Amino acid sequence: MLQAVIFDFDGTLVDTETAEFEARKAVLAKYDVPLSMEDWQHNIGLATNDFDPFQALVEKLGDDFNRTALNAQVSYAANNFVRKQPLLPGVTEIIDALIAADITIAVASNSPHSWVDNWLAFHGLLPKMATVVCRDDVEFGKPAPDIYNVVTARLGYAPETMISIEDSHTGVASAKAAGLQSIAVPLPFITGHDYSAADLHITSIADLTLEALHDLCA
Question: In this structure, which topology does domain 4-15+86-216 adopt according to CATH?
Answer without folding.
Answer: Rossmann fold (3.40.50)
